[in-house]
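Run histidine kinase through structure prediction, thanks.
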Amino acid sequence: MNLNFRRAYPYALLAAGLTVPFLAAWGLYQQTHSLLWLIIAVACVLEFFPIHLPGGRQWSTSVFCYVWAANQLGFAAATTAILFSVTAAFLRSVEGKLTAAHVRRLLISLGAHQLALVPAYVALHRALFLPYLFRSAVAAMLFELVRLAVLTCLHGSMRRLGMAAAALRSLHPVALIIPASLASLLSARNADWSITLPTAALFFSFVWISRIHSRLVDECESARQTYRVIAENSTDLVLVAASSGEITFASPGFLASAGVDRESLLGRSVFDLVAPEDFSRFDDLFTPIGADGQEHDFALEIDGMRADVALRLTPIRTDAAHAGGYILQARDLAPCLRKEATRLREGRLEAAGQLAASIAHEFRNPLTTVMGFVQLFRPQFDELAPGAYEAIWGELERMKDVTDSLMVLARPEAVKPVPCDLAEMARAAIGVCDPLALERGVPLDLGPLPRVQVLGHPGQLRQMVVHLLRNAIEAAAETHGRVVLWITATEAEATVHVRDTGPGIPDSVLEHLGEPMYDTEMKGTGLGLMVVHRIVQQHGGEIHIWRTEEPTGTAVEVRLPTYRG
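Sure, done. The structure for histidine kinase is below.
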């Protein structure tokens, strides 16, 4: 819209609005008929009783009073009715707070009404070939169209014009016929009040019913929107299916994280979402008798993704014997299964820790005695069997490491955590594992080791990295592979990465890692990973282990919260 036009247009409406009081004064001067005051009174009253349309829109029936006045008493009389009714509605809206901006808005509204009256008046007096009932209805529609178009140009928004068009589309013909009929009867030369008064009562009853209908529609729409918001923001999969199984409403819930959207579900059959092994059970459940509203465990297969769910099927009853459709609510069981697996793992670790504590305490004292005597008789060992001392001492150190690992599995000691540099812990672990890597012929590569602080126990953190490196070296030695260690850090967490190019961990073993009697090599007791899991748990971190491809191997990530001081 042209900028100069947009600037000048409001002033044109103000000028048109200023003419209304002068024309109204001229109309009152010319007309002394009491009918004008009756029309003004009815128009003012009707401003308080608009017809309510669906969607919160309203239709003011005062326009029929303007048409009535224009037909009976002329253009000036209709302008007078506009002045009084618009002013009454304006005073009701400002609530006694009158400002210059309010006066400007009133004059613009009067100007829009005045411009809309011109084509309505012309149509009313030119279409004399039509009965007055239809002429008044056409004039009222033309008045409202022009008024809304004038206001749309004022705001420069097509959205307002679209709202006006929606209001006209939602206007039922009865909303025009009843007030037009009343205006037609009142305009008759010899008004039969035995017909006019019942028609007026019918009109006000219609207005009252329209208000009740509008309120009920708004309540239903509000309830529908509320339930839609609940369904769309629920973590559960919510579907509404017809009796044939066709999905008519879908809220993907937990499937949204896997890329399944609403459009991919609408129109499909619910039977296409059920895993083949559960199809027969679901077929029995998808009936008015079988849909009991209870949870049943099912497996769903949607676009190549499989999910174990607790499915609740509720029929939408049309009568006592038939169901007009079904509501399906599927709750993902994966979080519950993970929580249960975590609880079982923690229970096993607790049991293993209690057993380890009793063994370690009984084992530590004899071990300390033996190590003391071995050091005492070192000269004799060197004299009788050179190299025997180093071999014996190495085995005793391994036994001591096992004992320390068993102590970690026991109940945590009341040691105050301190800030630790994770890079220093990694370098210390590398120093411990270098001899093993050289012995097995496994290159131990180092990536970036940035300095990052975590809050914890230095000895346990070093032991954690040692166990990870030893497992990786043992795995890489089977395929003459290599091991890589590096650290990444963000403001929130630090991550230790350990990767090897060994044979990789079988999928059947991955889910049991960290449990007693499970090991990546399918032998031993899995003590190292049990210790790692316990240390990570005590430090509030997470551990992730997975099999890699290209190259084949195993990747381990240990994420620990950073310490900010």
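The radius of gyration is 43 Å.
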